[in-house]
């Protein structure tokens, strides 16, 4: 399966209004993930493939639905949903090729053609981007894509992060960011900074991505997450509920304080799930932590 300009997003007019049923879709999506964790793959596939989820969601929902169907031995449905995911913009070919959830599809004659289509779509996409920003974004993600984050040497990663931020600043200042994803990649690099100014820069860049592509769901979420991170590190309540911390002196995760005036409808506009779904995520994080 696929498992974050100086004004606050809540006051910006950049994004399109959220679909009326976006909150409902987020709740269905949360139930689908819970079914996946319980290995209830038929239920997981049914929920991820729900019409409201697929209509309001992204390529990741179609991909996750395909994974559940593959695990439930519904091969035709899995291939149909993977094709839909690729058509919608799923480009992580490396993950597609190694994902254990899809193991039951790889002996099928359709698999090679599906992977070839994914690679062709990815190559066409990459040609539209600033290559250096894209490469640095991939490096940023790889530095954090480990099974056990506690084993990461953050002193090493911090040095690489700082170098990436410096180079990203130069590229953006020189006009090297043109596509929405260029700004999204730059924003993610700054989201992993360590100062208020870094988070503010991430927020500005994410909003620019949304301005260029009002349907860019990941950029919308990142605009909200960067604002939340700025507020949290300023000692103020976050707006959307994207930031978590360990409780003082313990290994228990808690949701950082949230401004109660922000509604789930406002969260949906920025591709952030309802607060009830986020609280369930905290419970799941703590269950995983205590199971170690």
Can you describe this structure in just a few lines?
The protein is mainly alpha-helical and 292 residues long. Helices cover 62% and strands 2% of the residues.
SSE series: HHHHHHHHHHHHEEHH
Class inferred from helices and paired strands: mainly alpha
* Arithmetic mean of pLDDT: 88
The main pleated sheet reads as: 2 strands, antiparallel
Strand content: under 5%
Number of helices: 14
- Fraction of residues in helix: 55-70%
Question: C-alpha Rg, in Å?
Answer: 19 Å
Q: Name the shape in a single word.
A: globular
Which spans have pLDDT < 50 for at least 5 consecutive residues?
3-20
Number of strands: 2
Characterization of the model:
This protein is mainly α. It has helices at residues 22-37, 41-48, 51-56, 59-71, 75-88, 93-98, 110-126, 131-144, 154-173, 180-191, 196-212, 217-233, 264-269, 275-290; strands at residues 244-246, 253-255. A two-stranded antiparallel sheet has the order 1-2. A hairpin with a 6-residue loop joins β1 (244-246) and β2 (253-255). The two termini are 21 Å apart. Mean pLDDT is 88; it is low at 3-20.
